[in-house]
Amino acid sequence: MPNQNYRICFCCRRQYKVAAAEAPPSLKAIFDAYSENGLMDVHNLHRFLLEVQKQKSATLEDAQTLMDALREPKPTALFHKRGINLQGIFKYLFGDINPPMDPKLGVHHDMNAPLSHYFIYTGHNSYLTGNQLSSDCSDAPIVRALLRGVRVIELDIWPNSTKDDIDVLHGRTLTTPVQFLKCLKSIKENAFKSSDYPVIITLEDHLSQSLQAKAAEMINKTFGDMLFTPGPEGLSELPSPESLKKRVIISTKPPKEYLKAKDLKGHESSWKKGSSDPSMEGPWGKEVKSIHAKIDDDMDVEEEEEEEEEEDDPKSHPPQYRCLIAIHAGKGKGGMKEWLRVDPNKVRRLSLSEQELERAAVMHGKDIVRFTERNLLRIYPKGTRFDSSNYNPLIGWMHGAQMVAFNMQGSGRHLWLMHGMFRGNGGCGYVKKPEFLLKPPHDPAAKKPITKTTLKVSIYMGEGWYSDFKHTHFDKYSPPDFYTRVGIAGVGGDVAMKKTKTIEDNWIPTWDEEFEFQLSVPELALLRIEVHEYDMSGKDDFGGQNCLPVSELREGIRAVPLYSHKGDKYKSVKLLMRFDF
């Protein structure tokens, strides 16, 4: 690699030599144990795959196939007719063919259970391009969400300014509308590009009966046979994702009368004055706290955003609209105990704000889990998240909530957890819930002192920043000073975060450190990985992140790709890590 020059002052420059990536000492020691005379032949490679990479089904033929693939298109200095040298093995380990999750697994969970048995990748106000008060509404964020694998799209539908057509917008705010029909067409075109499993459209309906009839006509004409319509009586049991492949499902609880849009200038000014944006506290947002942390003081001043006060009255809708609603939504009369009532003859969807769930979890934890065995529970961000920030999704998942709705256009650590959870099961947007959430009585509040497994994580080194960033991106005067944070987001005592030493002035840092994590609920644990660049003058710079479901980690030495704070994968940046249980 060429040397780099950094300006120190007006007339002086400092030159740094940029070295090529080299295997760290502990990796060299592993190679020495599985090689002879500096070469790893096919038999030792097979042993390496079995013992280090823990690929228990690997055969001698698999080892030969890997060796042949590494030699393509023709043998180089990295290879010898009798085997592969250290640099050859290093190239394999750090290559794209060695990811931390097995790409061959694909969709491997049982997909024949009812929808209520799955966590579902869910968006909130899916049409917004930015904040909740004044950003544009568009079909573009809907398309991006679907291509990422999101399976639940939320649309708020309102009469347009002339009351003769339907717009999608965040009502009673300054957001600019987008046409309902345009959103429907974009959903149809992109619904099944990333996954064949069903797309659920949740409608927050503020329409008159005549416009409901028009909405029904648009939906029918757009989706046709793709629509799943069980009939006006609703469902007595939820069908399976497998049975609903490439189907579109409508779920809504329209209000009994539609509301006229009003602006929220008072809310907007209060946001500007007092409300902080977690995503602005560094590009990665606030640290993820334990779900048992103290509930925020502003809980009591929560202004709920969604209006679901009574159960759906089917007779209040035009018949052509009523027939489209596959999953009925509503809270019903009474308090939380009544909302969580389980009807043996009917299934439904209940929506709670993040703060309603936190309050309910204190007294009704078991009832929530019991409700989610048969019914769908959707959690949405509190109404004061004007900045489109998000919340800790673990409190929803640990209570069995299937639809933990997130602002997908945002960024930050909580959104990284959402991305991480749904990298599981082949990225299809449906992840089977752990068995303990399907077999009551499970008490989410009960302490879980028993360690089920210990995860050992080794962080060897990283590379790729030199290729993906300008040489002055992190520091104008010298190469970057990288460190890595690694930890667990999960339940109770599983939550932890640890940090490597900082490697100064090096584009290809070698840490060679090992950490251990005791896990009591590995089924819900997510491995968090972040790289930062130390900055003496202020906040540290962001160098990449990844989040992975612990239950799907491949043991052994793996190349872990890193993503931007928005969740986009970097072209070259990755870490070399090892995982052992």
Automatic annotation (TrEMBL):
Cellular compartments per GO CC: plasma membrane
Q: Which positions fall inside the PI-PLC Y-box domain?
A: 351-437
Q: Where in the cell is it found?
A: Cell membrane
Point to the regions of Acidic residues compositional bias: 297-313
First-tier enzyme category under EC: hydrolase
Record EC number: 3.1.4.11
Q: How is this protein positioned relative to the membrane? A: Peripheral membrane protein
Which BP terms from GO are recorded? Answer: lipid catabolic process; phosphatidylinositol-mediated signaling; release of sequestered calcium ion into cytosol; response to stress
Cofactor(s) needed for function? Ca(2+)
Which keywords does UniProt give here? Cell membrane, Hydrolase, Lipid degradation, Lipid metabolism, Membrane, Transducer
Q: Which domain of life is it from?
A: Eukaryota
Reactions it catalyzes:
a 1,2-diacyl-sn-glycero-3-phospho-(1D-myo-inositol-4,5-bisphosphate) + H2O = 1D-myo-inositol 1,4,5-trisphosphate + a 1,2-diacyl-sn-glycerol + H(+)
GO MF terms listed in the record are: phosphatidylinositol-4,5-bisphosphate phospholipase C activity
Q: Disordered: where is this region?
A: 259-320
Q: Which PROSITE patterns match?
A: C2, PIPLC_X_DOMAIN, PIPLC_Y_DOMAIN
Pfam families in the cross-refs: C2, PI-PLC-X, PI-PLC-Y
Q: Locations of Basic and acidic residues compositional bias?
A: 259-275, 284-296
Mind telling me which PANTHER family this protein's record contains?
A: PHOSPHOINOSITIDE PHOSPHOLIPASE C 2, PHOSPHOINOSITIDE-SPECIFIC PHOSPHOLIPASE C FAMILY PROTEIN
Q: What is this protein called?
A: Phosphoinositide phospholipase C
Task: Please spell out the taxonomic lineage of the organism that makes this protein.
Answer: Eukaryota, Viridiplantae, Streptophyta, Embryophyta, Tracheophyta
